[in-house]
Amino acid sequence: MAHAVISCLHANLAALEAVLDDIDRLGITSITCLGDLVGYGPQPNEVVELVRARSIPTCQGCWDEDIIEGLNSCECSYPSQLAERRGQLAHHWTAAALSDDNKAFLASLPLSLRRDNLLFVHGSPNSQHEYLLPDMDAFAALERVETAGADTLFCGHTHRPYVRDLCNGTIQVRVQGSGRTAIHPEERQMELPVRRIVNAGSVGEPRHGNTNATYVIHHEDSGRTDIREVPYDVERTCRAIEAAGLPPVFAWRLRHGFEYAERADDASHVCER
Fold first, then answer.
1. CB 59 within 8 A of CB 121
2. What number of other Cβ atoms are within 10 A of residue 74's Cβ?
3. Average pLDDT, stretch 123-139?
4. CATH of the domain at 147
5. Vertex 150, ends 194 and 74: CA angle to 5°?
6. Residue 149 neighbours by CB distance under 10 Å
7. What is the residue range of 188's domain?
8. Assigned domain for 271 exists
């Protein structure tokens, strides 16, 4: 059976509608969402209500958490003071726009979902705010999956889709005890199990180099996972961003498909929230 995994919708209704249309066209009826229904985008209520109407099982993302907790959970990922101010503006705008009913829905979301040997989280099993980047240390990546008790870990948060197989790894252990092993320690080699991390990318704010929304399809019978890209009406969302009075750079980066940040202008900035 094919199972669709979506993430990081970010209040972008046009993108979510296009992705759901693509999933429906493929005849897939099983969907999991990895959170961040809101933030940055101009249609938080419409996106939350569409997810609720479709009864899509959903994890709580970092934006979903922050809207409920009032920025009490610091992600410390803004690269500059200007970027941080834009994020705070988007937070306050979203919090004011969301209905109480939709806020209660975000507050009710679990931190993870499980389907047999598959685990679904927003950032990592440790935190909604941890980035599992495709080039992170292989042992650390394996540890995230293994300690969660999963064979495959589905995550989002980075807005860049990837499939990473963690295989052909070994750990060498030197065991030193008493008697003979005190003089000649015994070396043991352990084969690491094959594990996989799948990042679904982003429906509502792609940052992988083009403007297409991304999601993944997991084929449970074969274990194969496909990354899909779906074009949508980017300008429809950009016009809504500008009409809402949100920072214009949010529309700019949707039109380009990657993050924009003033790293060189403020390289020493550390978030103090």
1. yes
2. 12
3. 89
4. 3.60.21.10
5. 115
6. 10
7. 2-256
8. no
